[in-house]
Amino acid sequence: MNFRNNFLDLTTSKVMGILNVTPDSFSDGGAFNILENGLSQAALMLSEGADIIDIGGESTKPGAQAVSVQQELDRVIPVIEAVFKRFDTIVSIDTSKAQVMKEAINAGASLINDVRALQENGALDIAVKAKVPVCLMHMQGQPKLMQQNPCYDDVVKEVMTFLQGRISVCLKAGIAGNQIIVDPGFGFGKSIEHNYKILANLEKFHELNVPVMAGMSRKSMIGNLLQRKIDQRLAGNIATATVAAQKGAQIIRVHDVKETVDAVKIVNIINAYRNNNER
Ligand code: 9MG
Questions:
Q1: What is the pTM of this model?
Q2: 3-class DSSP state for residue 91?
Q3: Average pLDDT for residues 202-217, to the nearest whole number?
Q4: Alpha-carbon Rg of the chain, whole angstroms?
């Protein structure tokens, strides 16, 4: 896939490192510290083998409050500029706001990761003009209330139908088919059962004929099942990432880059041997 002339081969699974630039992700909220901290986290994740750095300034955790456009810009733009200047990597902007997408792309971002699948005002238009890849994610409800009573008759079918609909809207608007990624949105308006049903059927999402992203890192689908606090979920994070890679997810979005890169390398080599045997 072409990220503004930075090409990423998605025939094997790749790892996206998460860089949250929200006040709760840094002990001291001062601007300098946020920038320095962001840069050193990006450097660490890249040295550990991340292929993409996903930078976000609005928490989308269940119960999270919305932030203003200006707050989000103030948080993410300096970090995107600095990461883009210092490292030869793909920078992704995690946002749903058109203005943030636009300024992030001007600052060097080459992927729009939108948990609201370009449904907010002006977002689709910006994505068409930006000509960068987009990741369209499924969410039922909004972060503040989405985990209160998620409901589906057939979660896999409904999530796929939504994503197919958003792909069609994007194609009609002028986004090239080879610039679209989809994501079932683990934890976004889904119970534990819904999340594991999706993971069990993740390979079905390839029927949408675009790369698939999966993000389960440290989420409650791991914590609640295993009864583990956030810093005790590494084994669960690696298990879910490994299954996603085995099921062909092209991009795995994680906090624990080093361990995930190791796990994904093993899955990738097994797949390479299997493909050779089939020839
Ligand atoms: C921003 N964000 C948080 N969780 C996510 C997930 O599962 N997928 C994507 N694409 N973005 C996410």
A1: 0.95
A2: strand
A3: 98
A4: 18
Amino acid at 279: R
Alpha helices in the chain (DSSP H): 31-47, 69-86, 98-107, 123-130, 155-173, 192-200, 220-226, 234-246, 257-278
Distances from the Cα of 217 to the Cα of 77, 99, 262, 266, angstroms: 24, 28, 15, 18
Does ligand 1 have an atom closer than 6 angstroms to the CB of 60? yes
pLDDT digits (tens, 9 = 90+) for 32-79: 578 999 999 999 999 999 999 999 999 888 877 789 999 999 999 999
Cα–Cα distance between 56 and 255 in angstroms, integer?
13
Nearest CA to ligand 1 atom 6: 215
The two tokens of residue 177 are: 């088919």
Task: Report the CATH number at residue 197.
Answer: 3.20.20.20
The boundaries of the domain holding residue 140 are 2-277
Tally of domains within the chain: 1
Indicate left, alpha or beta for 248 from its phi (over 0: left) and psi (-120 to 50: alpha): left
Known catalytic membership, residue 219: yes
Q: How many helices (H) and strands (E) does the chain have?
A: 9, 10
Best mutation site among 14, 135, 137, 216 for ligand 1 pocket (most ligand atoms within 8 Å of CB): 137
